[in-house]
Amino acid sequence: MRESLEPQNDPWKDKLTSDQYFVCRMKGTEPPFTGIYHDSKEKGVYNCLCCGAKLFSSDTKFDSGTGWPSFWESISDNVTTKEDTSHGMLRVEALCKNCGAHLGHVFDDGPNPTGLRYCINSVSLKLEK
To answer: 71 is in which domain, residue-wise?
Structure first.
């Protein structure tokens, strides 16, 4: 019998949809061009879906053509990073500093002034207009 990868007593399982749980707590990825914010032009602040921490301003959002919302800067220090060697690659994972939710990854091919591209899953965000 195969054991479930999801912890049985995880309180997040009762608070999140299965897609939200997969991305935010299991470090999954939503398919490109499917998230509600990948091409959104609405103004506001993108907060962590799990805890509500302010993560990104729409003023730093840009169209990277990747199919995920992309930002060139996070709000203050609410986003933390960590080395990610999953899937046989070396990447930099972006996490909510407050609750540890997986947001996506950070790459160094973004626009000025930072040169960064925070490639973030829509399902991990909630836009506060």
So the answer is: 12-128
Q: In a 10 Å sphere around its CB, with 0-12 CB exposed, 13-18 middle and 19+ buried, how is residue 9 labelled?
A: exposed
- Establish if 6 belongs to a structural domain: no
Those residues whose C-beta lies under 8 Å from the C-beta of residue 73, and which sit 6 or more positions away, are: 56, 57, 60, 113, 114, 116, 118
Written as tens digits, the pLDDT of the chain (129 aa) is: 334 455 556 889 999 999 999 999 999 999 999 999 999 999 999 999 999 999 999 999 999 999 999 999 999 799 999 999 888 889 999 999 999 999 999 999 999 999 999 999 999 999 999
- The SS3 of residue 76 is coil
Residues annotated catalytic, as ranges: 119
Question: DSSP secondary-structure letter at 8?
Answer: T
Asked, for residue 84, whether it belongs to a domain, the answer is: yes
pTM, to two decimals: 0.90
CATH of the domain at 64: 2.170.150.20
